[in-house]
Amino acid sequence: MNYGGRQAGSVPADPRFSEVRGNGHMADSERFSYGGQFDIRSPQQIAVEDMDPLPDINFNSEGGYPIQLIRYIRSQHQYEICEEAVQELMKYDGKIGFTCIAGAYRTGKSFLMNRVLNIDSGAGFKVDYKVNACTEGIWMWSKPVYNEKDDSLIFFIDTEGANSVERDRTHDAKVFSLALLISSYFIYNSVGNIDEQAISNLSMVAEISRHIAIKAGVPSDEYSLSAYAPKFLWVLRDFVLEIQDTAGRRISAPQYLEMSLTDPAIVNKGSESTKRIRSTLISFLRDRDCITLVRPLDDEEKLKNAERTSTRYLRPEFLRGLNQIREKILDKCTPKQLNGNFVTPINFIAMLESYIQSINSGDVPTISTAWDYILKTEAENAFKSAKETYTTGLKKKFEDNTAKSAAQLYFAMMEIRDDALEMFYRLASTRTDSNSYFFELRDKLKEYIAGKEAKALEINEKLNITNCEDVVRPCFDKVEARSL
């Protein structure tokens, strides 16, 4: 299913629905949960909830466009950050979050992201009709969505599909790892039920500790890495079954996910590989959720051109599902943090540069190294900007090339000094005791300012002497003339 590639067929029935273990014949008031996280809703509750639909959420993405964030250079087997994306990110300031979508190629993830963003009729992320993957590298929608809940901006990321015949597994793992490192909210898109094949397709999660580390040279397990993991949403596309337990009660999509990961009757039938994947999913993606979506259109022929189909012609059930996803994004896509500090756009670029450098050099992206790189880059940029601010201010104060009184000079120097230090403190905002770059470059800036002030005092003194000579010389000449 890609809504522009192979046709979407009906999803086969999943025999595991008849194997779900309940507690016998329970009354509607009795409840139980899978994995201790999700409760079964009674039919009455479901009816009430269905009668109270969410208000329509519009992300108002008009005016944006897809822009490549990370490019893969095939001839060199290297990755690079695209300058256009850097310039776009630098237009913004403050707290930012990232919602990323990933999944196997040709499963309609770009189509889904476009519709979540309220982008209609083929104007969004690339979707075409070929059998090959059409998204290469990692792309970003240029216009972020404002989230009032956190007073933050949410950027939307589309990734290259996994398992493409044009790429190898190593490349897929690198893109997948980068997507996880970037994301605040990670949407995994797949078609149909959560069966053994669907679990196998997430095998890269089981290898996450091989592709991401917390500290350089120190192996990290999935549980330790989970502190840095994004919140996770599994979207099951073209879902046609009603999820029920053996007693005929409906269970929610989140319960279905937990059941598929933890129910012994299901897990024990899987291979050792899928058991390992399930275990890693549970340890690494601790904040996880699931939602099902019906096909956007009933007509098989129309599905081939779904990307160019106006939203008003899509199935109401599909549109309701999109609205639920938008609500989850606004609730779960919190501002990106690293080491307890909010990541600003300039920090994000530095973080990404660190990860890309590690991958290109054959190393594993390391979170602590990225944080160190952020602090270093932040302090260096702050020093450079503060130095320029001071130099520009100094030139303006002395551009008339006239001498200043002691009071004038004192207040002029204090003003430009304060402006420069304020600039440094504002841009190098991470002032933890362990941030040696901050203190080192702050002291260096003060030394630079002290040197310039000493030079300014010297110049001003010379100007004063010159002015005095200019005043005294005519008088002396007159006295000398009279004596003659």
Would you write up a description of this structure?
The structure is a single chain. The chain contains 17 helices and 13 strands. It has helices spanning 43-50, 83-89, 109-116, 169-182, 196-200, 203-206, 208-211, 222-225, 253-262, 264-267, 272-284, 300-303, 316-332, 345-360, 367-397, 406-427, 436-483, and strands at residues 33-34, 38-39, 66-73, 78-81, 96-103, 138-141, 145-147, 152-159, 185-191, 231-237, 288-292, 337-338, 341-342.
Order of helices and strands: EEHEEHEHEEEHEHHHHEHHHEHHEEHHHH
Helices, by number, come to 17
Structural class estimated from helices and strands: alpha/beta
The gyration radius over C-alpha positions equals 30 Å
Topology:
Blueprint: E1 33-34, E2 38-39, H1 43-50, E3 66-73, E4 78-81, H2 83-89, E5 96-103, H3 109-116, E6 138-141, E7 145-147, E8 152-159, H4 169-182, E9 185-191, H5 196-200, H6 203-206, H7 208-211, H8 222-225, E10 231-237, H9 253-262, H10 264-267, H11 272-284, E11 288-292, H12 300-303, H13 316-332, E12 337-338, E13 341-342, H14 345-360, H15 367-397, H16 406-427, H17 436-483
Parallel strand pairs: 5-8, 5-9, 9-10, 10-11
Antiparallel strand pairs: 1-2, 3-4, 3-6, 6-8, 7-8, 12-13
Q: What features would you highlight for this structure?
A:
single chain; 484 residues; alpha/beta; nine-stranded mixed sheet; two-stranded antiparallel sheet; 17 helices; 13 strands
What is the compact description of this entry?
By secondary structure, the protein is of the alpha/beta class. Helix 14 crosses helix 15 (367-397) and helix 16 (406-427) packs antiparallel against helix 17.
